[in-house]
TrEMBL record:
Catalytic activity: a di-trans,poly-cis-dolichyl beta-D-mannosyl phosphate + L-threonyl-[protein] = 3-O-(alpha-D-mannosyl)-L-threonyl-[protein] + a di-trans,poly-cis-dolichyl phosphate + H(+); a di-trans,poly-cis-dolichyl beta-D-mannosyl phosphate + L-seryl-[protein] = 3-O-(alpha-D-mannosyl)-L-seryl-[protein] + a di-trans,poly-cis-dolichyl phosphate + H(+)
The name this protein goes by in its record: Protein O-mannosyl-transferase 1
Keywords, alphabetical: Endoplasmic reticulum, Glycosyltransferase, Membrane, Repeat, Transferase, Transmembrane, Transmembrane helix
TM region(s), chain numbering: 15-33, 104-120, 154-174, 186-219, 240-261, 578-600, 616-637, 643-662, 674-694
Organism: Anhinga anhinga (Anhinga)
EC number: 2.4.1.109
Record PANTHER family: DOLICHYL-PHOSPHATE-MANNOSE--PROTEIN MANNOSYLTRANSFERASE (PTHR10050), PROTEIN O-MANNOSYL-TRANSFERASE 1 (PTHR10050:SF51)
A GO term from the CC aspect: endoplasmic reticulum membrane
Taxonomic lineage of the native organism: Eukaryota, Metazoa, Chordata, Craniata, Vertebrata
Family note: Belongs to the glycosyltransferase 39 family.
InterPro entries: ArnT-like_N (IPR003342), MIR_dom_sf (IPR036300), MIR_motif (IPR016093), PMT-like (IPR027005), PMT_4TMC (IPR032421)
GO MF entries: dolichyl-phosphate-mannose-protein mannosyltransferase activity
Pathway(s) the chain acts in: Protein modification; protein glycosylation
Length: 728
């Protein structure tokens, strides 16, 4: 029974020494001296503040993309024991002792290092020689810009890692497709493709470009499978479902999981949550939740409420009034009603409180039992402090003459009767009998007499003049079929009014609520709102000293100074290997010219290369040229501040194309042994120049050694490069 123990257990393994050596060299090049400089380097000042917020569990919104990349950076901080206490306010600021610099930079550096063996394996899976694969890996290894970007707390190296992993996984899956359907390894590489794509998109939305490319390639390959008569209909359906599961369903589920973890970790209120809806803010610990906890859920006649505009632009604001009136005449000579001003005020204030009144009754308190207000009910809104009724009439608004003025009615005993009836319309109702709910209900107020809708003015920069204290204009917009968030309001603070006397009511309006009813949003509701904010929230794009256009990137006419030593000439720049960048451009042009030449000749039934080599050539171009195009061309359509590092994913694909073109030229255009020998010698000389340029610019890649003024001037190969030279 124990006979198997008579012989030793032997495990054999094949080790690719090329791959091992490349991995070690990649790790050395990216991890060496990782904690230098011990100061904030360029965009570390941006990402670092999010890491600190993760450490403190404080909610934030970053309009640059999804949260997965930020969470990976925060993971580095967590593993290093970072407590989040550091003021990220200045590039070049020295890190305090509590900041684990090496740990924070470790994951981007590891991702950058692993891109080297990934490049090698991609070319092997594309069926090119190990020599070409080795060349691609070494070019990635010696690319100064990729080294610089991967050695700091930045996201591009992580993005490129997941992009290359997705490409490699799909190529391995596709190569297994030919002889082992639905095997364990087949499923592994297919599923890993979807996972890597989801992670790439989760780091930055730029990952979506490569994801779309791989979906297109997968769709093309499946289209070719449909024509295979050896596959049954059932088999084709299974293949389709497998791809749908791995490449669509799993990535979507993972993308949602990134937000789930993000929202689970960040449960505390902070400065960023003010742009979210009241319901979202109330779901966070502290902040608005401390104010709204225990509020009555259903708005009733007699309720005291504050109304927040849902749009939140140009800033969050609440429906507001005060004792001041509109001027009799505006600066342009137009007249007003001289009624009490109604505005949208961007701060919490006692003048933001309103009382929901039943037009058929005089009382301003909630009855027992409360009578809830429902969709379609007619109400009057009474300003809590001044007790005047919200009103609109056929008088032009101060800044928006095509809209109606909104005011609180003052009876001047003239022929202008009050028009203060409003119909409550719940926009997000489930039925026409829905009750108006605190925080959860989004409502429009439609004026009964004129059908105008209460809204924050759409006029750009619609802040009232000095007489209106620069508060935002509120108008009555004629009801139209269109819908805009500026017309929608939600109850943020709410209490049941108990005091009929005005002085007692004023005291009540200053008092916190006491009732205990919680209002929690579901994950999908929070995800939908946060995702919409990320996609639509736009910071003001200002011209940056180191911003550039997409055209500048191809020829590297720009650079970015990442860090400058406070006393010496030591500095770090995002600068690429000039020879590699130029060679990548040439390789792309050569590939496209050769492809066009082959296509024309094939149309004439002239086949310059065998069919299998042609298919290899096309496949390589689809991945490398396609990857470059989808990661570069969209930037011409983007209205955002662009930097050189945005080009790095496209550059990576272009670099992979260089050894592909070189091998093709050697195999198919160098017909004699002499030509092959000469071409090989030129290739070695060219690669030596790549290494020489890498060494030349390594002082501004790694930040040491410190260079003299003359040495720095010698590195300024282009007038457009901003090499920093300290004044003597």
């Amino acid at each position: 029974m124990l006979g198997f123990l008579k012989n030793p257990v032997v495990v054999t393994a094949e080790i690719n020494m090329n791959l091992m050596a490349l991995t070690v060299m990649g790790l050395i090049s990216r991890l060496w001296g990782l904690s230098y400089p011990r100061a904030v380097v360029f965009d570390e000042v941006y990402y670092g503040q999010f890491v600190s917020l993760y450490m403190k569990r404080i909610f934030f919104v970053d309009d640059s993309g999804p949260p997965f990349g930020h969470m990976l950076l925060a993971l580095g901080g967590y593993l290093g024991g970072f407590d989040g206490n550091f003021l990220w306010n200045r590039i070049g600021a020295e890190y305090s002792t509590n900041v684990p610099v090496r740990s924070l930079r470790l994951l981007p550096a590891l991702a950058g290092a692993l891109c080297v063996p990934l490049a090698y394996q991609i070319l092997v899976e594309l069926k090119f020689s190990h020599c070409a694969a080795l060349g691609a890996a070494l070019l990635i290894l010696l690319e100064n810009s990729l080294i610089t970007q991967s050695r700091f707390m930045l996201l591009e190296s992580i993005l490129i890692f997941f992009i290359l992993l997705a490409v490699l996984s799909y190529l391995k899956f596709y190569n297994l497709q030919r002889h082992s359907f639905f095997s364990g390894s087949w499923w592994f590489w297919l599923l890993l493709t979807g996972v890597a794509c989801s992670c790439a998109v989760g780091v930055k939305y730029m990952g979506l470009f490569t994801y779309m490319l791989l979906l297109a390639v997968a769709g093309l390959h499946f289209w070719q499978m449909i024509g295979d008569q050896n596959l049954s209909n059932v088999s084709l359906i299974c293949h389709f479902l497998a791809r749908g599961l791995a490449l669509i369903i799993i990535p979507v589920a993972m993308y949602l999981s990134f937000f789930y973890v993000h929202l689970t970790l960040l449960y505390r209120s902070g400065p960023h949550d003010q742009i979210m809806t009241s319901a979202f803010q109330a779901s966070l610990e502290g902040g608005l939740a401390r104010i709204t906890q225990g509020q009555p859920l259903e708005v009733a006649y007699g309720s005291q409420i504050t109304l927040r505009n849902v749009l939140g632009k140009p800033m969050q604001c609440w429906l507001h009034s005060h004792t001041n009136t509109y001027p009799i005449r505006y600066e342009n000579g137009r007249g007003s009603s001289h009624q009490q001003q109604v505005t949208c005020y961007p701060f919490k204030d006692v003048n933001n409180w309103w009382i929901v009144k039943d037009p058929g009754m005089q009382q301003l308190v909630v009855s027992n039992p409360p009578r809830p207000v429902r969709h379609g009910h007619i109400v009057q809104l009474v300003h809590g402090i001044t007790t005047r009724y919200l009103n609109t009439h056929d008088v032009a608004a101060p800044l928006s003459p095509h809209s109606q003025e909104v005011s609180c009615y003052i009876d001047y005993n003239i022929s202008m009767p009050a028009q203060n009836l409003w119909r409550v319309e719940i926009v997000n109702r489930e039925s026409d009998t829905d009750v108006w709910k605190t925080i959860l209900s989004e409502v429009r107020f439609v004026h009964v007499n004129t059908s105008a809708v209460l809204k924050v003015s759409g006029f750009i920069g619609a802040s009232l003049p000095e007489w209106g204290y620069r508060q935002l204009e509120v108008v009555g917009e004629k009801l139209s079929k269109g819908y805009h968030q500026s017309m929608v309001w939600n109850v943020e603070e709410h209490r049941y009014g108990k005091s009929q006397e005005q002085k007692e009511r004023e005291v009540e309006l200053h008092s916190p609520t006491q009732m205990d009813i919680s209002k929690n949003l579901s994950f999908m509701a929070k995800f939908t709102e946060l995702q919409w904010k990320i996609l639509t929230l736009k910071n003001e794009d200002t011209e940056h000293k180191y911003s550039s256009s997409a055209l500048d990137w191809i020829t590297m006419d720009t650079n970015i100074a990442y860090w400058l030593h406070p006393t010496s000439g030591a500095q770090i720049h995002l600068l690429g290997n000039v020879v590699t960048w130029a060679s990548a451009n040439i390789a792309a042009v050569v590939y496209m010219c050769l492809s066009l030449w082959y296509l024309v000749r094939r149309r004439r039934k002239i086949y310059d290369i065998p069919e299998d080599k042609w298919q290899l050539w096309v496949s390589a171009g689809g991945i490398c040229v396609g990857g470059w195009a989808v990661n570069y061309l969209p930037f011409f359509l983007m209205e955002k501040t662009l930097f050189l590092y945005h080009y790095l994913p496209a550059l990576t694909f272009q670099i992979l194309l260089i050894p592909i073109v070189l091998q093709h030229l050697s195999d198919h255009l160098c017909s004699s042994l002499l030509l092959k020998s000469m071409f090989s010698a030129l290739t070695v000389a060219w690669f030596s120049s790549v290494y020489l340029i890498y060494c030349t610019f390594s002082p501004v890649t790694y930040g040491e050694p410190s260079l003299s003024v003359a040495e720095l001037k010698a590195l300024r190969w282009k007038d457009s490069w901003n090499i920093l030279i300290r004044k003597q």
